[in-house]
Amino acid sequence: MSEVIPPSRFLYDMDSLIARALNGEKDKAIILMNYFCSTVERGEEVDRRVQLYIATAWRRYLGDPKHDIAKALGLKRPKAGNPRGVSKKRRLTPDGREELAQRIDELRRNKLNYADAIAAAADEFDVSQRTASNCYSEYFPDGLENE
Question: Are 86 and 80 in contact (CB under 8 A)?
Fold first, then answer.
C-alpha cells in the first residue's frame, strides 16, 4: 500500500518525491502516478513538475529500446553492482585505497592488532571491514605475517 500524503505536504514534497521516484523508489513513483491519474480524472491541471516527471520517464523509455517502462517510471530500481541492494558505503579511488592501507599499517605500528586496526580504519574511512582488509592486503601483502 502506498503512503498517503496530505495535499498541502504533497505539493511541498513534490521535488523530493520526483527525485526519489526517478531513483527507483517504487512507493514514491506510485504516489506520483496516483496523483497524476486522479488529477486528470477530475479534469484538473497536473502540477508541471509531475508532467515533467512523466515526460522524463517516457523519454527514458523511448530513448533506449532495452529500457523497461517500469524502470523508467521508477517502479524498478536500476541494477547496481551489488545485486542485493545499493551499498551505503562510499567507493574508494586507487589513491583512497592506498591511503586506507597506510592508515591500517599506521594503526598496526601503534600496537593495534589486525582486527582492531581494520575495524578502526573501516569506520574512519566509511567502508566495510572487508574493503579495508582487501586494501591492506593489496598494499601490504606481507603485513599479515607479523600478526
Answer: yes
* Average pLDDT across the chain, whole number: 78
The Cα angle at residue 38 between residues 34 and 40, in degrees rounded to 5? 120
Residue 107 buriedness (CB in 10 A; 0-12 / 13-18 / 19+)? buried
Full domain range(s) for residue 48: 7-73
| Predicted confidence (pLDDT) per residue in 111-134, tens digit | 888 899 899 988 888 888 898 898
Q: Specify whether 52 is located in the same domain as 103.
A: no
Structural domain ending residue among the three candidates 73, 103, 124: 73
Please identify which residue in the block is written with the cell numbers 511541498. 12
Tell whether pTM > 0.85. Answer: no
